[in-house]
Amino acid sequence: MYTRRIHSATTRALGIPEVMGLICGSSCLSQSDLANLCQVSRFMSDISMPPLWRHVTAEVLLELICSASVCSRSNGTIRSIILDEHSIDDQTFAKFHLYAPYVRTLDIYSGKHNRCYTVHGWDILRDEMEAQGHPLLPNLKTLRFLNISHSYGLDELKWISMFATRGVNEVSISPNRLSAEGLIAFSIASTILKTLVDLCPSIQTLDISTGDFSMPLFPEDDRLRTAFAHRPTRRWYQELELLTQLRYLTVSDGWLCPDSLLALSNLPELEFLCIVPGSLDGFLIFDMDPILPTGVFPHLAELSILGSDGYDTETILSVVEMSRKITVMRLELELCSEDGVDDTWRELEKTFGGLRNASCLRELHVTFPIQPEEGERPMNAYDSIEKMGPHLSLEHIHISGIRINRDHCFIRKLAALWPNVRTLSMPSQSASLKELEEFARLPSLRHLTVNLSLKYPDYVTRPDFERRPLKTLKSSGPVRLSTSYKDLSLSANALLVLWPSLERVSWSDEDPTRTQMADFFNSEVLRFNREFLFREPRDVAQLSATKRAKEMRSLFRLVKEGLEEVDSDSDADADTDPEEGSGTE
């Protein structure tokens, strides 16, 4: 029984919204544990209910309906949820309506499995909604599909028709990367968009990945026949024009056909556009019309192109009115080789060449996915990066899966291309002191990430340019340091010659022995050289390092003891290519 009284400190603590938010948002407690927490008392229930039910999965929500039964597969995943029309009474939806007002985000399907469940009994849900006279989830804001069913969008259309409301501002239908059938047909996407126009016209975020499919001569799947026969009243781009509040949009490259691209360009509030693979029957990227009316894409500032090859990427970027105001760009390349000819280096040229139109770039991410465990190595960029030309506004760059060959002298040319870059991350780029000497020419660089090797010290000449304000040097690989104190001191001195303001060097390494060596390098060697040595001539530095080695021999011996030096000389990307002219190895 609930009475007004002084509650314990624990109870009062749980009454703090932020505390309950942390508890209910924690992955340490199961849904059933959290539900039990709510049932302790009415006081606890009133506090816990909103954060507990703010974000739920569709299967948990439907199981609140008394007539619902769940059928599972042998591996424990849900096969279907059946709503029995013969067991409906006044209390069937009692629990559902108790919790439904708290739901803000609804997740449908699972992103961990490639098989989605089906729901039987949509009429029961529709009848209940009509009986209530308001949406089943009246306060829903976000509707997310973590997978796409094999219905080509027909099941997704049912979910949206049932639960979308005027208050929904985000709908995400992500592609099922584990199954080729997990896609939304363009024809059904048109009807989905019409439904969104009718139910939630003020939607601001939409992720809908579509793609056409080939109809087999004798289709056995009823859903395939139904999807193929579906004929919308209007095309998807005609419905898109009515969603005037869209700010964040993810679509497939089939949406770049002339009529659809024009509709995209006229969205008045669009700020972010992401393009993923998904073909439209009868349309190729090369058929794009790069000429658009002046002034379109008025607010577009962020562009992502994921899963395209270099040629398609260049074609998309050739649309000047789309690229000219972009400040943040993300490119994830899927380069291809046809007829046994490795042409990936040319695709890189096309990709970076396409960036010439993006003159307002401040942040650039270029990724070429590789799997080192399968023997894949970073792609040699040669001088392809130079094709992008100077970008004076560029401040932050991340390039992974791509490297510049050590035998080429292109690294020093980066200073002319990126004079104002402050953060540069090239985790696939191996760098010894010689390469770091080239990176030191970047005039505004403050943070640098490369695959660093300091095992073999080398003298660097005092720069003939103004030394830069670099503070952070990070290695994407394991600790590669010499086990000789004298060599460590020479390496530290060389780093400080290049960057007097360098504070520390960090490595992506969890081996305790190697990290101990790295800590010793930063706390003792680098610190000592910063305070005493880095301004002295070369011969004096070497002499001082030798003297210091004697003084610290006992301390260094403790660090070095038990250290098994890992042979890391063969970097993921070698100094030279086994075959000049190949883009990947």
UniProtKB/TrEMBL annotation:
Residues 564-585 are annotated as: Disordered. This is F-box domain-containing protein. It comes from Rhizoctonia solani.
